[in-house]
Amino acid sequence: xxxxxxxxxxxxxxxxxxxxxxxxxxxxxxxxxxxxxxxxxxxxxxxxxxxxxxxxxxxxxxxxxxxxxxxxxxxxxxxxxxxxxxxxxxxxxxxxxxxxxxxxxxxxxxxxxxxxxxxxxxxxxxxxxxxxxxxxxxxxxxxxxxxxxxxxxxxxxxxxxxxxxxxxxxxxxxxxx
Length: 177
Hints:
The chain is mainly β. It has helices spanning 16-24, 150-159, 162-165; strands at 31-37, 40-46, 54-56, 61-67, 70-75, 81-86, 91-94, 100-103, 109-114, 123-128, 135-141. It has one domain (16-165): Jelly Rolls (Sandwich), CATH 2.60.120.10. The strands form 3 sheets. A 5-stranded antiparallel beta sheet has the order 1-2-9-4-7. The chain starts with 15 loop residues before the first helix and ends in a 12-residue tail after the last helix. The mean pLDDT is 90. Its EC number is 1.13.11.6.
């Protein structure tokens, strides 16, 4: 008797320490996708000490601190920046479209579980002026493969443009990384 006739068994098992060791050994990659299924995207992220943008993600997120502490900067609906500290061994649930900026050192690691993006969904990356908090720039990406590292691509575009880093309200230039 088959209890679950439509269930296809594909149950990947990964060695998280091996993946953290790999990410520690290279500066070329800061994320390592574990799997990308229709309803579940899972990856390991190595800290980006330079992170300053706020990511607006159309999916729910679970962030688990594998090694080190996460300082998750986020913006309230009123635009106030706050910080949630997620100690090693703890996890945080985040609803969709919360502007967030995960900040943790390069020797720290997060396990992140999200949903793959649905057709038409767009990820947004916002930078704010360090002087007056005005929106400096927005990058948008359709993320259909997390292996392309959309965060790094957004940063390359932002840091590569003096215009994007210059506040149109007060003239402050966001310092380079």
